[in-house]
Structures are given as C-alpha cells and as structure tokens.
Amino acid sequence: MIKSRIIVAGSPDPRLMQLKTVLESDGHRVAATGNPSQTIHETAGGRHDVLILDSCIKGVCEYDLCRTIRPKSDLGIILLIRDNDGQSKIDALEAGADDYLATPFVPAELLARVRALLRRVAPAGARKPKLVLSDRMVDLQSHQVVGPASRVAHLTPKEFNVLRYLMSHANRPVSHQMLARAVWRRDYYGDFEYIRVVIAQLRRKLEPNPESPQYIVTDRSSGYRLQIPSQDAVGETDVIPGPSPYALHAVRSDIPAMVP
Question: What are the structural domains of the chain?
Fold first, then answer.
C-alpha cells in the first residue's frame, strides 16, 4: 500500500538516491528531480503530497526555489538546511516550508517528520483543484488568482463560469454561441460584446501580457481557446465539464487585476 507521493529535489548525488531509497522502504512512492524547472513542474499539478527540498539545485538557492513553489502548491514542504542555527530555521519557515531538518540526520527522524507532516496536509487527491498557468495559479474553489509576489485577484461569477467552460474544452476552439448558451443561457446569433468584455477581464487577471495573450487566445474561425502548454499543469480534478453543478461563492467584482 502506498502511503504517500513524495518528491525529493536536489543535485543528483548519492545522498539524493539514499533519501529516495529510505522513503521507498517506508512505503512511499518517490520521484527524484534534479533541476529547478522540473521540480516546479512536478509540484504544480497537485499529484504529490510532500516535497523534500535539498540544498542548491543547479545554482538556485533552496530558499528561493521554495518561495517560487509555495504560492502555486499546497503540498507539504520539508526543507533540508545546512546549518542548525536559528536564522536558517527562520529562513526556511519564511520561505514557505512546513518543516525543516538539519543535515546530517538519521533516516528515522526524516521518516518521523514526513509522517507528522502527512497528518497535517490533505492528500493530493483531496486538495482544492487548481489551474496553474506559468506564473499564476487559479484556485477553483475560492475563485482566486495568485500571481507574482503572491498578489491576488478575484474572479467574478461570470469570469469563473467562462473559465470553467473554456477549461472543459481546453486546447479546443469554443464559439461565441457555445459560451452564450453555456454561461448566459442565451441561444441566438447577434452582438457578443458582453462575452468580449468578460474575456478581456479574464485576460487581465490570467495573462502575463493581456495585450498579447498566450492562454486565452482568439480563434479566428470560431471564438476563443484556452491554450494550456505542456509545461503548465492542470490537476487531475481541475477540468469539470459543463456548467457548474453548484452555486458559485460570492466574490467581489470591484478588485483590480492584481491586489498587492
């Protein structure tokens, strides 16, 4: 029986493989990553429970990497610190780690800390569904968009319903008529300016450059398409087809695209 899914990230060396072996012997499924981009990609999709982050990976400080991962994922993070001093512990926690462990350590202590962390974090399959697009993460339960520097934008009900419908047709064109029927319950041909307004608002909150969108792109022959490149991630429960089966949470619509 698999206890959890764990990522061990660090420079490829015998210690990294030893960590992997120790965790696997305790019944965990373990993936090892050796570069920052791979680590960020693996942690973004909501498929793992715990990240054990070792020292510098290809020149990137473990604290900086932790700060990058934390806004995009709510998995548990254990940071392996080199110095067992007060400042290193403070730095680890302020970077977003849930726990830390000074090296060298005995395997039994690592396993104990992993078990303690698993008791506090939700299993991967039970976490809130998320859509991760480059430097932004959309929480599909709270309808919040977390952007660079942890700035937050809130999706209005219409924006959220349009995004949900585009997600259910990811990488496929969606016509104005399809959106009008699914979101506005309108079934006619005519002026779709109200759709263009909502698309513009979504781009302002989701796109790094709204004037040159890379995710919600215009399909000249049809309408729009949510383009999700392979390096970005959609969790296993993120794409929910059809209109929302439950009432939308109340959200504010008067908040700018990104609120510091």
Answer: 5-126 (3.40.50.2300), 130-234 (1.10.10.10)
